[in-house]
């Protein structure tokens, strides 16, 4: 008799901060130890819940920044002005402090090492986080799948993971686009264009898997540009975020 798949019930787990790394003046990477963590795929996210002594709680969703590694869960959090959760996580936590984490969440916006199609990653701002998890998962698996990253960010100072992406890896090409301030001699500041994706992405006839993450307007623009370049809509996966109160 065939068995019916039973959906896994997500539960809250107590996570403790073990390490922090500064990424930009407003963003920090937080590494948590989460006992009995079930593992995750690159591209998934978690819910984080904070509870005050009076019982008030607030929760937000954050993309996981690194592939599965035992009980280790890595998040990169950008402080949002007046954000009640992000301001506490990125600046208010000390090593050993607990938070509650639930996940992993999502199964569509993921990259798996067994995939062999070329990959195009298109990131806007902090949308780089789950895409970096995919880059790291590629390295962890020793995959030779070719990756291209187009990373749009306001200024050079706002780039996440700058040393890691600067070093790169065989088969990984990175192109930076700046919207407010750009280094001299490079592409003038401006928003993502069809020429950018045509120059730095894969030709549509290569049938790449395209992952786009960032603010809603950026994601919609990037997806439309990819369609205009002839990419198959079924190969374009998007993840967007908007104001949540931080």
TrEMBL record:
It comes from the Bacteria. Residues 10-111 form the FAD-binding FR-type domain. Keywords: 2Fe-2S, Iron, Iron-sulfur, Metal-binding. InterPro entries: Cbr1-like_FAD-bd_dom, FAD-bd_FR_type, FNR_nucleotide-bd, MRET, OxRdtase_FAD/NAD-bd, Riboflavin_synthase-like_b-brl. GO terms for molecular function: 2 iron, 2 sulfur cluster binding; oxidoreductase activity. Its cofactor is FAD. The keyword Ligase does not apply. Transmembrane segments: none annotated. PANTHER family: NADH OXIDOREDUCTASE HCR, PROTEIN RFBI. This is Ferredoxin reductase. It comes from Actinomadura livida. The lineage of its organism: Bacteria, Bacillati, Actinomycetota, Actinomycetes, Streptosporangiales.
